[in-house]
UniProtKB/TrEMBL annotation:
<dbReference type="InterPro" id="IPR052894">
    <property type="entry name" value="AsmA-related"/>
</dbReference>
<feature type="domain" description="AsmA">
    <location>
        <begin position="751"/>
        <end position="894"/>
    </location>
</feature>
<dbReference type="InterPro" id="IPR007844">
    <property type="entry name" value="AsmA"/>
</dbReference>
<dbReference type="GO" id="GO:0090313">
    <property type="term" value="P:regulation of protein targeting to membrane"/>
</dbReference>
<feature type="domain" description="AsmA">
    <location>
        <begin position="1"/>
        <end position="115"/>
    </location>
</feature>
<dbReference type="GO" id="GO:0005886">
    <property type="term" value="C:plasma membrane"/>
</dbReference>
<protein>
    <submittedName>
        <fullName>AsmA family protein</fullName>
    </submittedName>
</protein>
<dbReference type="Pfam" id="PF05170">
    <property type="entry name" value="AsmA"/>
</dbReference>
Length: 970
């Protein structure tokens, strides 16, 4: 019996081993393809979706029955769920399998690729007609990928299980949303009689948690509940700064759409409120509206670029902020309506009030570009306080004046990306001036590099004085920050330093401190056409390397506008007729620049040639000015009437000198103008408010204009204010007017403190000598001291009824006056004058004729008539005469007048009113003749100096004639 039992045991063990071996080895070798349709029916019934198995089958009974099918297709076209899987694993119940029934205890899809068109799947399918597998069957996914609309969930692994055919259901798994790993847990409770079930879900990723709790209703997916989200670092989830966050909202979902209202969002210290909505049809999309009182934007600038690649589905954002802090300033009334989708951010609307009260509005899109996010769209800017806006942008304006850049309105296309800003098709008004064109700005790319600016602009009017604030162009360029620039400018009108140019075009570049003016042209500058090109260096070492200038026109009279401060040129301009041409060029010559140029105007030609340092700090060269008629050129310059004293002839000025540090030094200059022949040397230095000079003149012949004794035109000495210097003149001949004038003249003087002084003057005058000094102050005070000795005259000097027509004259005078013209000086004249004459001729009476009439045996009536005629005019030869005058307040009193003649002698008193041009003179004349003593004759003259009334007093003469007649009677 024992042996039988042992045999049965061994047999049972053998059968068991054989069964195990068969279960292990046989099923994989069986052809299950014959059961393909049955297995597809079972899988379709288990999952509630159409299944198709295209690959091979395998069955393993150990360690548990498992059927594996490869090449699985799920669903049909138009289904809500479609896809494929590498393989389908069905775990079967062994006991049921042994009695011929197929019962699935677990269904696993390996590497499925599923596309879900409608989510969530309507719950009525689970609540009223649950799939068979939900009755205790577990469904698992391994290494899956699920696409819902445009949202892709990668690396999906999870398990769905149910406690019964009607729930509750539990889903636990993990997946990747973009680059973020997410763990999810969802529990759906058992539906009640009304179809309502509880739903709780929690999602965890990168330290953040999202929790949803609420109630789900059958008849479609209807959910109502609450959602919460929180985390310690928002930057781990979104392109955002590293801020803690917390959000709460009331959530309502129906079908494929939902909304979250009563939304509160805490981002660090800032709080926002608003609402959100989402939809899954036709494509998933989320819309968020947020509003806040104050929000810091600076932390969000750098992370914002990541928004282009971060969103798996479109996100609409509507943001409203009362105040937003950025760049040290505050934006007010900020509103932005954005749509983030398809790798770009559509800016439907963005508007804000910038610092300085500038309003800006944007519309366009932010797209991914090679350098980073790129904005393309439209911009409108209205900046009534542009200087406040520039200060917020940290744009230094030291090169601009306070009157420039006050306001700006702009409308243009705008492109902006890291390292590039483009303003295109712009229309603007800067300080009320219309501007159009475009600007390209490239900020410094790295340390040590500079910003690059390109601009093509058209300006209606450009006022450089206002823009530069009184600075020179070179000073403004030196004040600019280091930049590289390419500028094309067209301006209808440009004004600078009182000069206006029209139809101006400029094409210039600035690169690494090198300035290149490819072309500067003005269609109308002072009646001429200007073209200029050149290059040089800007900055602290500003210098010019080369240039070419061409300036020509047909109306030279308008050139006066180029020198508005010159009264001489402005007065002469109306008589300038004809065209003009100015050409100049400069070329590098070693360490210097060679300059050549010429100008032709009014038959005059000016030629310039020389060398300059590269910074034009020092220029050495030669200047030549030539004209065929000197008086004609001076008349064109406003100095008329020179021919009478300067003479006919050409003009030629050739000078060699040096200009450096605002100082011009003339080594030698030869001047020929009419009869003038002179050589000049000296120095001229310009200083703030004036300057200094030193002048030396060596002249062979130096003609001077005749003095204008009665001139009433004011002599303005104001231009001499701030000037000082010395002068020295040596002249072999110095004609004055049409007279022979002086010879061997030596004069020295100075200008200091607004007073012009002739310290000394010596020379020869008509066989005699002259010496003197004089001074004229800015206030018009004139002082003259002069001494003449033995000057011979041979004709009347004053062309007056009483004059000196010949003789040897000596004079000593010390006079002064106050006024702004010669007439004013005479009207206030004061001082002393003494004149002595030897062997001369007095004009005014004929003493010889009077003596002859008295000595001749004539009837009394005829003798008296002859005497009156003799004292009514004529001339008297004198041996000696003396005249002493004392002037005060323009009235010269004759304090001493005596003369001696071969025909008698005389004396006189009186005064001359220089203010009124009147004379009062009383002469006592005693003729001599024959052997008798002749009586005294009185002569009185009064009235205008040019035509005084004469009264001859002949009472003594009548008595003498009567007594002589009685004595001769028998």
């Amino acid at each position: 019996m024992a042996a039988l039992l042992r045999l049965l045991a061994w047999f049972a063990a053998f059968l068991a081993a054989l069964a195990v071996l068969a279960a292990w080895l046989v099923p994989p070798r069986l052809d299950w393809s014959a059961y393909r349709a049955e297995l597809e029916r079972i899988a379709s019934a288990e999952l509630g979706r159409e299944f198709r198995i295209d690959g091979p089958f395998a069955l393993a009974l150990l360690p548990e029955p498992r059927l594996v099918a490869r090449g699985v297709a799920i669903g049909e076209a138009g289904d809500t769920v479609t896809g494929t899987a590498e393989e389908l694993r069905l775990t079967l119940a062994l006991g049921r399998l042994l009695i011929g029934e197929v019962a699935v205890s677990e269904l696993t899809l390996v590497a499925p690729r599923l596309a879900i068109r409608d989510v969530p799947i309507p719950l009525w399918a689970a609540s009223s007609r649950p799939p068979p597998f939900l009755a205790g069957t577990r469904v698992s996914l391994e290494r899956g990928e699920i696409t819902v609309g445009t949202v892709r969930l990668a690396h999906v692994s999870g398990r769905l299980s149910a406690q019964g055919p009607f729930g509750p259901y539990t889903l636990v798994g993990r997946y990747s949303l973009g680059s973020m790993p997410v763990e999810a847990q969802l529990t759906l409770g058992r539906a009640g009689l009304d179809g309502a079930a509880t739903l709780e879900a929690a999602f965890f990723g990168r330290g953040a948690r999202v929790a949803v709790a609420g109630v789900v209703l059958h008849g479609g997916f209807v959910f109502s509940g609450k959602v919460e989200a929180e985390g310690a670092d928002l930057s781990q989830l979104l392109p955002a700064p590293a801020l803690p966050f917390r959000a709460e909202a009331r959530l309502a979902v129906e079908g494929g759409a939902g909304s979250a209202d009563q939304l509160t969002l805490q981002l660090g210290p800032s709080r926002l409120s608003g609402a959100a909505s989402f939809a899954t049809r036709p494509e998933p999309r989320v819309d968020i509206a947020l509003a806040g009182v104050r929000f810091p934007l600076d932390p969000w600038v750098a992370p914002a670029s990541g928004a282009l690649a971060a969103t798996p589905f479109p996100i609409g954002l509507d943001l409203s902020l009362e105040a937003a802090e950025i760049g040290g300033g505050t934006l007010r009334s900020l509103r932005a309506a954005l749509l983030i989708a398809d790798g770009q951010v559509a800016v439907n609307e963005a508007a804000a009030v910038l610092p300085g009260g500038a309003g800006v509005a944007l519309a366009g899109a932010v797209i991914a570009a090679e350098r980073g996010p790129r904005f393309e769209g439209l911009v409108e800017l209205e900046a009534p306080d542009l200087r406040g806006l520039l200060a917020w942008l940290s744009l230094d304006r030291v090169w601009a004046g306070v009157e420039g850049f006050r306001s700006l309105s702009l409308s243009s296309r705008l492109s902006a990306e890291p390292g590039l800003l483009q303003i295109e098709q712009a229309t603007a008004r800067l300080d009320g001036v219309p501007i159009s064109g475009g600007v390209v700005i490239r900020p410094p790319a790295a340390a040590g590099s500079v910003a690059e600016i390109g601009a093509g602009l058209r300006v209606a009017r450009l006022e450089l004085d206002r823009v530069l604030g009184g600075k020179g162009l070179g000073e403004a360029l030196a004040a600019l920050p280091p930049i590289d620039a390419n500028l094309r400018l067209e301006a209808d009108e440009v004004s600078a330093f009182g000069v206006v140019a029209r139809e101006v075009t400029l094409d210039a570049t600035l690169a690494r401190g090198q300035v290149a003016v490819r072309r500067l042209a003005a269609g109308d500058l002072a009646g001429g056409v200007l073209t200029l090109s050149g290059s040089g260096e800007a900055g602290a070492r500003s210098r010019i390397s080369d240039f070419e200038l061409d300036f020509s026109g047909t109306d030279a009279s308008r050139l006066a506008s180029l020198v508005p401060a010159s009264n001489l040129i402005a007065a002469a301009a109306p008589v300038w007729q004809g065209g003009f041409t100015i050409r100049a060029a400069a070329r590098a010559a070693g360490e210097q620049v060679a300059i050549t140029g010429f100008a032709e105007l009014l038959d005059a030609r000016l030629e310039v040639a020389g060398l300059a340092d590269t910074d034009f700090g020092r220029v050495t060269g030669r200047v030549a000015l030539r004209h065929p008629g000197a008086p004609r050129l001076l008349a064109a310059l406003g100095i008329a009437g020179t021919e009478a004293w300067l003479g006919q002839g050409s003009l030629a000025i050739v000078a060699e000198g040096t200009a450096a540090q605002r100082t011009v030094t003339v080594g030698r200059a030869e001047v020929v103008a009419g009869d003038l022949r002179a050589g000049l040397s000296g120095e001229l230095g310009l200083e703030p408010g004036g300057g200094r000079f030193r002048l030396a003149v060596e002249a062979e012949r130096l003609p001077l204009p005749p003095p204008v004794w009665e001139g009433r035109r004011p002599i303005d000495l104001a231009p001499l204010a701030g000037w000082s210097g010395t002068f020295a003149i040596r002249a072999a001949e110095m004609p004055v007017g049409t007279t022979a004038g002086l010879a061997a003249v030596a004069a020295e003087g100075e200008l200091a403190g607004g007073t012009l002084r002739l310290a000394s003057l010596t020379g020869r005058l008509r066989g005699g000598t002259i010496a003197g000094s004089a001074s004229l102050s800015a206030a018009g005070e004139l002082a003259v001291d002069v001494v003449l000795a033995d000057v011979v005259i041979d004709r009347p000097q004053l062309e007056l009824p009483f004059d000196l027509a010949g003789g040897s004259v000596s004079l000593a005078a010390s006079l002064s006056g106050q006024g702004q013209s010669p007439a004013g000086w005479f009207a206030s004249l004061r001082g002393d004058l003494r004149i002595t004459v030897a062997d001369g001729v007095l004009v005014g009476f004929d003493l010889a004729a009077a003596a002859e009439a008295l000595a001749a045996p004539l009837p009394e009536a005829e003798a008296l008539a002859r005497i009156r005629r003799a004292l009514a005019g004529g001339a008297t030869a004198i041996e000696q005469a003396t005249l002493v005058l004392r002037a005060e307040a323009g009235i010269a009193a004759i304090t001493g007048l005596t003369f001696r003649s071969p025909y008698g002698h005389g004396s006189g008193t009186g005064e001359i009113d220089l203010r009124a041009g009147a004379i009062g003179l009383a002469l006592a004349i005693t003729p001599v003749g024959g052997g008798e003593t002749l009586p005294e004759i009185g002569l009185r003259a009064s009235g205008p100096v040019a035509a005084p009334r004469r009264v001859v007093e002949t009472a003594a003469v009548a008595r003498h004639l009567a007594e002589r007649a009685r004595a001769r009677r028998p």
